[in-house]
Write the C-alpha cells for this entry.
Amino acid sequence: MNWNEPISVPEETERKPFFVFDDGDEVNFEIIGFEKAVSSNNNPMAKLELMLSDDEGHSCKAFENLVLCEKMAWRLKEFMVAIGQAEPTAKLLNPNWLKVFGSTGKCKVEVEAYGANKEKRINKVAKWLAPGAAPEAKTEPEAKFDF
C-alpha cells in the first residue's frame, strides 16, 4: 500500500474477533513495540506494545506505560526482573533500553473495561513475573448461598 494510491479491500476481508484473557491469567509476553516518551507530569516514560499469548494459541496485543519516577521504581524493577535485566534482590537498576524491544517474559493480566457503558474490554499487565516464578494461585470468587 501507498499513501497516494487507492486501497483495494477484498469482500472476504473480515475482522477477527478480539481475544481478551481472563483476570488473573498468567501469560507470555513479547515486547513488539517500544518508544521513549514523556508522561503528562513531564517524567520520562517507556511506551510498550506487547503481544500476549498462552500455551493454547490465544494471543492479543496490550499496551503499557512505564513512568520513570521514584513512585514507580517498584514497577520498573518488576519489569526489568521479568525480562532478565535485573535480579529480584537488585537495589539499583541499570536498564539497557536498547534491549527492551524483543524481550520476552511472563506476566499476570487483569481486564479493564472501558467505553460509554464499559462494554469494551482490554488486557492490562497487573504484575510482571520473575523468570521461573511459580504460578500464583487464582482466587475464585466466594460462593454465596441463600438459606
Remarks:
- The radius of gyration is 19 Å.
- The longest strand covers residues 26-38.
